[in-house]
Write a structure and sequence with these properties.
about 80 residues, alpha+beta, single chain
């Protein structure tokens, strides 16, 4: 009952307002927890504050952190690729 009164007051105060339907949360608006559920491959002890990541043509993951560049392969794990001063 109070909701109907509020709607009438809104119509009087701003009669030109548009009502918008709230979209359902499915399709592209569906909640996504992909990042929350992904496997952690490197701990904080291996790399702190990564700056950037890239995947090379060989499929190896390269991670920059400060002056270090690490490469990660599922077979060998993280290894230091380079260090820049």
């Amino acid at each position: 009952m109070a909701g109907r009164w509020m709607e009438m007051i809104r119509d009087i105060v701003s009669p030109d307002r548009e009502t918008h339907a709230i979209p359902s949360m499915d399709g592209p608006l569906r909640p996504n927890n992909g990042l929350d559920s992904c496997e952690i491959i490197l701990g904080e002890d291996a790399v702190s504050k990564p700056d950037d990541v890239a995947i090379g043509p060989d499929g190896i993951l390269y991670i920059s952190s400060g002056t270090r560049v690490l490469q990660y392969s599922p077979d060998t794990g993280p290894t230091e690729f380079g260090n820049f001063d």
